[in-house]
Each structure stands twice: as structure tokens, then as C-alpha cells.
Amino acid sequence: MSVDISVIIPLYNKGEFIERTLKSVAAQDISNWECIIFISENPGNWKLIFQKNSGQTSARNHGVRLAQGTYLAFLDADDLWPNNKLRLQFEALETDHSTVLVLSAFAIFKDHNTTARVVRHKDPFKMNKRWLLMSGFGGGLESVGMMRQGVLSDEELFDSALSTSSGLDLSLRLAEFGKIILLPEIGLYYRINAGQWHADTNELGRNLDILCERYQNRFSQNLARSHSAYLFWISARGNGAKYLVISVVRSLFTLRNGQLSILANLIWRNIASSRLGKSMRNETLSAISKLDS
Fold it and tell me: Domain ranges in the chain?
């Protein structure tokens, strides 16, 4: 029997979360899927693969090469899916065959008692642009994306030269081949925890240098200036609240417009996601509590 969806989960040092992640996959209200995951044993429609740790990008590409599904869905080993995630994205791809990628809204959480922020994109072009500029939230492709198999002929869908930004790169490439659909329903509960790739500013900087060279002509904005400003504010925040305030004042007095523009965008995105999270507080916290128990 053919498989509709291949779910690909790279796993390394996420043992405390993986059981709940797998339960959220097993609870999906659609059944014709397979799950490719790098673990030792588990019954059911799981493909259990072992390889020497060589990063999430390598693991995802390994999974893609083994996948038999018409569609590919990606999930990190510490995140959670609501039970209708696969079905809604599958229906979107089946309905419109010009669609190459489906993303959904997602909630960002750290624990069960804190109001989750909710990110909901409306325009795929603006999403990719702001994601590349580091001025807005990304699409979360590595944990909430479902794409059509065979759209890209590359042996590696996720560029092995990238780590933190491989999902962004894939989203930008897929946009050249067809539609990207953004579903309004929450399709992912994204967990914030220690040791995540995005917290490594040195690695992020290396990734951004590659993306700047690769996509510098995709949009009219100055990518290098935008990336430099983003890394500046990440570094300033990491040095504490006092240093961050001093950095803001200095930028105001020296009229560093690039830095101020990125800061304004970062503040606004957090305000917007927090407002949406508060409006959906009961729904998101209840769902997270059930899935993460």
C-alpha cells in the first residue's frame, strides 16, 4: 500500500521529550503515514534508523532518501503536534496541486503555566522576506512544514552547509517552484529549551553569511546590514537588561537607522505574537498541558 505522508524526526540528546513528541504523532486523526526516526525500538508504522550523529540537516536528508510518502512532514524531537495537523495540511496539498509547501500557525511555549506566544503568518512572500531579513518570525518549516515530494531534484533538500537556517533556505527555494500555503490553525507547539541551535549566535552568524551571499539580490533590502543589526541586538540582550538599554540609547543618539529598524520590528513581532497568545490562552495552554503530560 502506498504511503501518503512520511514524517521525519531527527533525534539527538532529546530523550526527555521524545516520548511526548511521538505520542503527538501517533494521535493524528489521519492514519496513512510513516514515521522515520533515529531510535532503537518501537512498534507500529515507524522506520527506525540509526546513524552516527552528523547534525539535524544530515538526519533530515537521510530520512528524505528513505521516505516513501507522497508528502514529507518534518518535526523536531522536542516539539508537539495537535492531532489534526497532518490531516489539514494533507487536505491543502491534495486540493491544490500547484502547492509545494504548507505551513501552519504555531505556538511558542516553555512550560504549561505561561501564556504561549502564537505566530500566524498571512502572506508567504512577506513571511520569507522578513524571515530572511531576521525582522520577523520564521515559518518553522523544520517542525511544522509539509511539502510535496519530488518538487526539488537536489539530492539534499536541506543544504548541509547550513544548520540553523536550513529551513529558511528550503522555504526560499520552494517558493520558486509553486505556492506556499499558510494555514491559520495551530499546527505546532514549539518548545523553548536549553541547547537549541538558534541560541548559538556564532553558528547563526555563519549561516547568515551564507544566506547573504546566496540571496543578496532576492529582495531590495541590504541583507548584510539587516543581519549585522539582528546579531547586534541578540548580543546586546545576552549581556543583560542594563547593557541592552544602553545600546538602545546609543543607537538613538547616533541615528543608527539599520539597528533601530530591526529593533522596532523585533519588538513589534513579539508584541503581536504575545497579544495573539493571550487571546488564545485557554486553548493553547489546555492543548499543551494534554500533549505534554
Answer: 3-197+280-291, 199-279
Task: Give the C-alpha separation, 125 to 137, whole Å.
Answer: 13
Question: CA-CA distance, 1 to 34, in Å (whole number)?
Answer: 12
- Counting every residue written for the chain, the total comes to 293
pTM of the model: 0.90
- As a whole number of angstroms, the distance between CA 39 and CA 43 comes to 12
Cell representation of residue 171: 522555504
CA distance 117 to 161: 31
- CA separation, residue 203 to residues 164, 193, 197, 206, 242 (Å): 7, 17, 8, 5, 25
Residue with C-alpha cell 496541486?
97
The three three-digit cell numbers of residue 127, written as one number:
513571511
Phi then psi for residue 71, to 5 deg, are: -125, 150
Of the candidates 11, 18, 3, 21, the one whose C-alpha atom is nearest the C-alpha of residue 67 is 3
- The answer, yes or no, to whether residue 82 has pLDDT greater than 90, is yes
pLDDT in tens, 21-57: 999 999 999 989 988 887 544 444 455 544 444 456 7
- Spell 232-247 as b/e; 16+ CB within 10 A means b: bbbebeeeeeeebeeb
Mean pLDDT over all residues of the chain? 88
Question: Do 64 and 152 touch, CB atoms closer than 8 A?
Answer: no
pLDDT band at 69 (very low <50, low <70, confident <90, very high): very high
User: How, if at all, do strands 99-109 and 179-191 pair?
Assistant: parallel
Compute the distance between CA of residue 4 and CA of residue 26 in angstroms, rounded to an integer.
15
Which fold does the domain 3-197+280-291 belong to in CATH? Answer: Spore Coat Polysaccharide Biosynthesis Protein SpsA; Chain A (3.90.550)
| pLDDT confidence band for 174 (50 / 70 / 90) | very high
